[in-house]
């Protein structure tokens, strides 16, 4: 452990895989500044945009499309798998990797197969239900970490999700005035933040269009990320001083600081960030998939930091009723904020880094 370390990150594809990987990489660099951190990625997704922008060298490998389950379909992809594994082994040799830390997705499976028996492996699962790549990797990993209980991975240790320090150390009170000025929101009064991930969410856009007039009438301003390419004509005539609609939120830290409550989906990263900054939320899971989004939000909801509403049950009347009651009751708002913050795992980035250092020592 006296020599500089070489850590390879395998978490490309989507922001849900990339962001915790880079937050972990940031923690490694903070704790051991001489560490060389290399990120694996593919031509797909956000790899080539997010990873270099954060100052990490990116090594591209061929993507391995994954079926949702471990089935014979995976065995019918030997050429693609072998090519990707071969390329990954070359990178592990060239970087003299001491450990591979995987976060799931297209990049993780070939990384696990390439490292098996050659380089120690640590697996991190952010979702309440583990994906195929991490289920395979966990079988021969030295350590397995998870964000929430019940991921289904053997020997999983609960550490939470690594978050950017910009989010995990956010003081909303200190930044409130700056954040509201940044978005052109009123300096006083409650603000509801609405977003559905980087691509937006049609049902959230529809319901906020129906609820906006009543919310604004109740004195609640709205900061709404509608998603790139999503226009909501019904919202175009609203008071731009109290309704702010954007295709994408470049500064999520300021969006959180400006807000008093949130209406959002419940991807693993969204739940972790919203809870970490202490914002009460109405979580609306995607209406398709394997149900993992509802499970992601379950610990926060059980703690009293949010409510869970099925997509089919989301109505303008319910949004107006819930948020008008919450945002005009300071005592309840404070209690839910404390419950949300208390349900998270502060310091997950450094906890995972220390776990990885232990693996290297051994």
Index terms:
15 helices; single chain; 362 residues; six-stranded parallel beta sheet; seven-stranded parallel beta sheet; Rossmann fold; 15% strand; alpha/beta; 2 domains
Q: Report the end-to-end length measured between terminal Cα atoms.
A: 10 Å
Q: Which class of secondary structure composition applies to the elements?
A: alpha/beta
Return the domain count. 2
Corresponding CATH architecture of the largest domain: 3-Layer(aba) Sandwich
Overall pLDDT metric: 91
Tell how many strands the DSSP assignment holds. Answer: 13
Helix content: 40-55%
Helix count equals 15
Please write the CATH class name of the largest domain.
Alpha Beta
Order of SSEs, N→C?
Answer: EHEHEHHEHEHEEHHEHEEHEHEHEHHH
Radius of gyration from the alpha-carbon trace, in angstroms? 21 Å
- Strands of the widest sheet, in order across it, are 3-2-1-4-5-6-7
In CATH, the topology of the largest domain is named Rossmann fold
| Low-pLDDT stretches | none
Q: Largest sheet, if any?
A: 7 strands, parallel
Shape: elongated
CATH superfamily of the largest domain: Glycogen Phosphorylase B
Query: What fraction of residues sit in β-strands?
Result: 5-15%
């Amino acid at each position: 452990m006296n020599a500089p370390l070489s850590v390879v990150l395998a978490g490309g594809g989507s922001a849900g895989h990339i962001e915790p990987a880079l937050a972990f990489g940031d923690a490694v660099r903070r704790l051991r500044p001489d560490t060389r951190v290399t990120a694996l990625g593919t031509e797909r997704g956000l790899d080539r945009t997010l990873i270099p922008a954060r100052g990490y060298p990116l090594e591209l490998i061929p993507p391995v499309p994954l079926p949702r389950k471990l089935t014979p379909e995976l065995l019918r992809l030997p050429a693609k798998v072998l090519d990707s594994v071969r390329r990954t082994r070359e990178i592990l040799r060239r970087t003299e990797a001491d450990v591979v830390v995987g976060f799931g997705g297209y990049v993780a499976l070939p990384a696990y197969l390439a490292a098996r028996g050659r380089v120690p492996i640590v697996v991190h699962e952010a979702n309440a239900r583990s994906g195929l790549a991490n289920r395979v990797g966990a079988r021969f990993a030295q350590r397995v970490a998870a964000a929430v209980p019940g991921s289904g991975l053997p020997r999983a240790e609960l550490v939470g999700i690594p978050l950017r320090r910009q989010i995990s150390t956010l003081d909303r009170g200190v930044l409130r005035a700056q954040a509201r000025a940044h978005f052109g929101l009123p300096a006083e009064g409650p603000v509801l933040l609405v977003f559905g991930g980087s691509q937006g969410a049609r049902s959230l856009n529809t319901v906020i269009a129906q609820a906006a007039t009543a919310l604004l009438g109740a004195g609640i301003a709205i900061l709404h990320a509608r998603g790139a390419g999503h226009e909501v004509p019904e919202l175009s005539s609203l008071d731009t001083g109290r309704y702010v609609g954007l295709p994408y939120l470049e500064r999520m830290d300021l969006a959180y600081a400006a807000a008093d409550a949130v209406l959002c989906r419940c991807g693993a990263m969204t739940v972790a960030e919203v809870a970490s900054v202490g914002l009460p939320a109405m979580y609306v899971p995607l209406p398709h998939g394997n149900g993992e989004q509802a499970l992601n939000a379950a610990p926060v909801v059980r703690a009293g930091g949010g409510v869970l509403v099925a997509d089919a049950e989301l109505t303008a009347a319910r949004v107006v009723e819930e948020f008008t009651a919450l945002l005009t009751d300071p005592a309840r708002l404070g209690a839910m904020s404390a419950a949300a913050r208390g349900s998270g795992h502060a310091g997950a980035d450094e906890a995972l880094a220390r776990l990885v250092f232990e693996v290297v020592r051994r």
